[in-house]
DNA sequence: GGGCGTTTCGCACATAGTGCGAACGAGGTG
DNA sequence: CACCTCGTTCGCACTATGTGCGAAACGCCC
């Protein structure tokens, strides 16, 4: 059928199809009918129905008694919540972020280090102090140019950092972005000593960010708490901000450990 | 290999396996290694690696450069968020719920009707006014015994209600639960007329709940907003509560439509 | 009743998925 | 340095597994 010889060659066909169905249905706010799915995937009716039946039986998809449209089901919900939970975005933790936001009058971020990615787990902001436009809740790249990104790198040893840089070379996002590996490593050492990371106009012009590490009960750095302010205000407020993120990170860590 | 002749017989094997892997990994906060997954599924190494590769390539699973553990990846996050979004649990809507909670001093609920299920999309509560213990965010049954459940049924025509009752017969949860189809249908008519549903100790003893319908831009009833209070307080406060949920439902509907 | 869209069923074919075993690679340890 | 162990990939042979086609059973609306 469809030539499927991408990179390596591996890839379970029917599994890929099932996953693609999930994505299709997820992208359709009002659901899709079996026929629509079959058509968009270029599959036969029969095959599609069997795939859908599998998904339906496991509650990945659901539908209304009379209706013919498939929508995402409760298992997807459970998976999403499990991930949310793993990302530490629980109610008590959110309260800490809210308190931080109120205290410093700036958007507060919770990021969690996942694999080689950084997950923006939660943002606490307000109309008066809105979040950074470019930074959405979800997964994000830009490791070397953000305060929490540098914190993630600093949590690894030299070999780990090197491995990471092989896959994601530091790009120049603004005039101040660090793109040299040696300079980056120096700064990471400094960050390890301070247990605090700062970024001034390295990610976005006019903005600065300060982040402190969140630790698991075992002491591993699993994420960061940060706030971002106008770059021009940063110098004057740095002591206050440092105190705020250190305190926030400590509180989040504490609530994590129990 | 493993005999797999459950109910009907349909069910794509490799698809089911992939889905089960997702659930396994989702349930393991710190991730799983390939070997662990292989063992728990009773699969060969080779097969497991191929399945994992598929999941990994599509970003359903991720892992850290050095690490050997698989964790849920960004696609799962996206699916979860897509569902959250479909469930209307967005920030502006949450604000409405919070305002309701503050106004009436009781936990406020947002439920969305999905297929034959009711999804509890959001709960706004506080230490002073905590949520009902038995009712968690996520999907829930108990359609006939809750205010929002009755609202869901009332949004269907007689045939739709009948179809639903075939699959989920009304169980007696408390002494006041309605278990008779005729009585239920009478009440649904009343609810359709009032555009408001009330439940007093039908779901849990000592508790009462009042719910108003949320409508889509097209005018379809897609969910409900509700608050729950102590049953003994209900009569005295009913006018205030009715006003609050009607107002909340209206606001949510408005924010939905844009 | 006749048409239409959805869903299920049966069957024949060969592809796609599987399991086994072995090779490869990277650490770690004596 | 040779020897582990553990994680990952490769090759291959086999057939179970998934597939497509066609046709039949619903359920529904005009």
Automatic annotation (TrEMBL), chains A, B:
Sample GO molecular function, one term: DNA binding
Stored SMART domains: HTH_ICLR
Keyword annotations from UniProtKB, A to Z: DNA-binding, Transcription, Transcription regulation
Residue ranges of every copy of the IclR-ED domain listed in the record: 75-258
PROSITE patterns: HTH_ICLR, ICLR_ED
Residue ranges of every copy of the HTH iclR-type domain listed in the record: 12-74
Protein name: IclR family transcriptional regulator
């Amino acid at each position: 059928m469809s030539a499927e010889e991408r990179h390596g060659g591996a890839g379970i066909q029917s599994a890929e199809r099932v996953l693609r169905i999930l994505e299709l249905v997820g992208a359709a706010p009002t659901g899709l009918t079996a026929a629509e799915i079959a058509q968009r995937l270029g599959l036969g009716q029969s095959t599609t129905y069997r795939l859908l039946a599998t998904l339906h039986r496991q509650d990945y998809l659901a539908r209304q008694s009379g209706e013919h449209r498939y929508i995402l089901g409760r298992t997807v919900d459970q998976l999403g919540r499990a991930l949310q939970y793993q990302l530490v975005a629980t109610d008590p933790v959110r309260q800490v972020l809210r308190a931080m936001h109120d205290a410093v009058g700036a958007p507060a971020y919770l990021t969690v280090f996942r694999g080689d990615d950084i997950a923006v787990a939660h943002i606490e902001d307000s109309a008066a102090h809105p979040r950074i436009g470019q930074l959405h809740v979800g997964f994000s790249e830009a490791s070397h140019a953000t305060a929490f990104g540098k914190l993630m790198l600093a949590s690894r040893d030299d070999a780990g950092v090197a491995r990471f840089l092989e896959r994601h070379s530091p790009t120049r996002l603004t005039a101040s972005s660090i793109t040299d590996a040696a300079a980056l490593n120096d700064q990471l050492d400094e960050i390890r000593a301070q247990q605090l990371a700062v970024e001034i106009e390295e990610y976005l012009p006019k903005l600065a960010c300060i982040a402190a590490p969140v630790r698991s009960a075992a002491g591993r750095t699993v994420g960061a708490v940060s706030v971002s302010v106008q770059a021009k205000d940063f110098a004057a407020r740095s002591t206050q901000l440092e105190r705020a993120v250190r305190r926030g990170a400590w509180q989040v860590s504490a609530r994590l450990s129990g």
